[in-house]
Amino acid sequence: MSARTRLLSAVSSLTVLLGALGVHPVYAGAAPSLLDNNTSLCSPYAPLECVALNPNQSIINLYWDSNWDADGNVPISFLNDFTQTLVNSSYFASAAQYGVTSMTFAGAYGPASGCASNPGTTTDWGHISDWVLCEKHALNLPPALFVVYAPVMTQYVEPILGLTSCTPYDNGTFAAFHSITAPSLFPLDSAQVFAFIPEQCAAAQAETSIGQLTFVDSTTLNATHEIIEAATDPTAPLFWIDDNAYTGFDIFDPLAGVVHLVAYGEAADLCNAQPGTIVGPPTPFPIFPAITSASSGERFLVEYYWSNADGACVPKPHNFAMTATGLPLPNQAVLDGQPVGLQFATLVADGTYHSAAFLTPIQDSTQTGVYYVTSAAPFKGVITSDVALVANYVMGYGLRVVTNPLILYPRDTSLTQFGVFPPGSVVVLNTDPYIAGFASGDRYRFSGWTGAPVSTVGSTTTVTMDAPHSLTANYVLQHQLQVAEAGLPSGQSWSMTVNGTTSQGPFSGWVDDGAALSLSAQSPVTNSTGTNYFFLGFVPTPPATMTVAFNTVAQYSTLTALITAALNSGAITGPGSQALASSLSTQWSTSESAAARGSTTAALGIIQAFICHVSAQSGKLVTTAFANQLISYARADYQVLGGGSQNRGC
What we know:
Layout: H1 3-20, E1 56-63, H2 76-88, E2 102-109, E3 122-123, H3 125-138, E4 145-150, E5 155-156, E6 168-169, E7 172-173, E8 177-180, E9 193-198, H4 199-208, H5 215-232, H6 256-261, H7 267-270, E10 290-292, E11 299-301, E12 305-307, E13 312-314, E14 318-325, E15 332-335, E16 338-341, E17 344-348, E18 353-358, E19 362-363, E20 370-373, E21 379-382, E22 387-392, E23 394-404, E24 419-421, E25 426-430, E26 434-436, E27 442-450, E28 460-464, E29 469-486, E30 495-498, E31 501-504, E32 507-512, E33 519-521, E34 525-526, E35 532-539, E36 550-557, H8 559-569, H9 577-597, H10 600-617, H11 624-640
Parallel strand pairs: 1-2, 1-4, 3-5, 4-9, 14-22, 23-29, 29-36
Antiparallel strand pairs: 6-7, 8-9, 10-11, 12-13, 14-17, 15-16, 15-18, 18-21, 19-20, 20-23, 23-24, 25-28, 26-27, 27-29, 29-32, 30-31, 30-33, 34-35, 35-36
């Protein structure tokens, strides 16, 4: 190591030590002027102090790892987004009082060709200085505040003082620092300002924060801490030492002034939670301010720094208050998902996102059914100024509506929900007229309201809120009844009667659970050609009482078809049965033809003869049961034709 390098390394060691101990050489005097404004008289100990800061500064990010994202560091896209958001925000506004009037983001670069691709597992000031100068010259970069991000594998080791990054010491943990490089001789160039941000420390901070900070949070906090200090005090310990309290050189104590001048720290140090600081951080909720990216919506945490003009750490936190009127008893609101007592006030960090809401309705614990409501809208947003939320509550009566049975409540799509209404107001009540049941073919029918007087009995009605009310929408279980037919010609009309009510078939309707069921079908049914179709019965047989959904079929047949079937089944049998069946079929067809022609008298006579013919063969060639069936159908047709219920004897 050359004498020049050893000297520069010693100076850098002092810089790192002072930074690590929170005592960068900017004098912290009595409030509000804790930091010099860079215009005070020059101190004999810092002859370069009067050199003015560059008012228009820029940041260049340097990522010291050719495989940055793949090696588990905070992604470059995040850090570039953070830097652009930082310079676009108002974060540097208070730095104007110290001479920094603008800050821009001038780009981001990885290792250039010919420069080290990564710092290895350890690095020091000399290594960083060489790499920054190599990058600047290889990439032809302008002078800037170079923010050097070191990968998670790298630890900073100070060779002279023995300090290492990310390890505890008497006053805290050395997590990052800022300094200047050595001047460059080949090519000739001045020293460059840089901030060194080791990702190893940020990862460790995030891990030990127990979920309070993310890896990104720790990185941006460390970066803003060093960026604001490098911008306002770029060449500590040589420049911008506050000498407001400088009393002159004492030959008997030559270091007295120097020690006094480096008593507390730089802009961010004054607002950092380190032992021995005379200001310390504000205590808002949450503690750190934030900036929000316009492009990605990401929020990045930033460090506080001291502002002489404000006499406080900035960005200043904001007052956040929630006040309620009209509540007779103490109550609560909600801030960021947590209950807070009313009335409520706190500090919230600048740029942080918060949500807040007043509870409504609030039940009066001393009066059943009495509530207090407010129309105050919920709050959601990023805090950039003081917030004062006010809710005005008014008293009302509660209206609660349920179903009977209660299991229908979730299925009742139009049921009036719980609400609080002004005394004396008229409220419209709604419920579904019908609600689907839980078994196929079941439903529930609305049967009426109970619990309070209503204006009408229908599913839509009104109630007057002269007191708190609880109403019940009552329902009756119903089962579906479906009746089809078999045996009639396609398109043939027919009718049926269900519990005394006649309607056209086929039938589909609903019957209350447990109700008696009376079911009949039209007989005979006469088509356009005069053919009669007689109702034989329902298959399956209807139950006497409806307890489940039921489907049945009305069976129809012509008499001639019945006679043919009887011949085949043995209901007409014996010698001459074939001739008898043919004779009966012809006789019946003749009666139908006569009726179709309008010859009613002739038709009635033929039917009478048919009845006599069947009666004569009952118990002989025709079974008694089938004979009675034929006679019953014939008499029904006789009556339909106007022959009366009593036909002539044989």
